[in-house]
Amino acid sequence: MEYIVNSDFSTGKLDPWRPVAGSTIEIGEEDGRYHAVLGDSDKLNQNVRIADVQPRRFLLSVELKVINGTEEDKGQVHLLWSSNALFRTYYPAVSDDWATTTFDLFVSNLATTNNIEVLVEPRFAKEVLVGSVSLRDERRRRH
């Protein structure tokens, strides 16, 4: 099951994603695909509600592309996951072509609130395009 709403920005709008702390994030389009455009110090956030709460495995994926970045710049994107008071930081692969990075995420606590945040480091002076963010439940259901 997919938990991120508007995970690929296909609505052409940001909602229910929220810019954080003065970030000015726009939606762009390239070859008929929408994406969020993040610049220096921008943060993009979405709260995730998971009703059937129990320990389980998730796959957390993010598709990114850097515009006019250098090799030093490409490691300056963080993907933050918080569940109750537990925070985890991931460093997805970033290049000047669209690249998708997937992380295994095992949630062992009984979480009631979950949060996804894409963060571009303050010293990162280029643009980062976010094509999609996905959080999928990988629990196998019994028939």
How are the SSEs ordered, and which strands pair?
Elements: E1 18-19, E2 26-30, E3 33-38, E4 43-48, E5 56-67, E6 77-83, E7 86-90, E8 99-107, E9 114-120, E10 127-137
Antiparallel strand pairs: 1-4, 2-3, 3-10, 4-9, 5-8, 5-10, 6-7, 6-9
Overview of this protein structure:
- The protein has 143 residues and is mostly beta strands.
- It has one domain (18-75, 82-126): Jelly Rolls (Sandwich).
- The chain has strands at 18-19, 26-30, 33-38, 43-48, 56-67, 77-83, 86-90, 99-107, 114-120, 127-137.
- The strands form two sheets. Strands 1-4-9-6-7 form a five-stranded antiparallel sheet, with no helix packed on it.
- The radius of gyration is 15 Å and the shape is globular.
- The two termini are 16 Å apart.
Keywords:
mainly beta; 10 strands; five-stranded antiparallel sheet; about 140 residues; Jelly Rolls
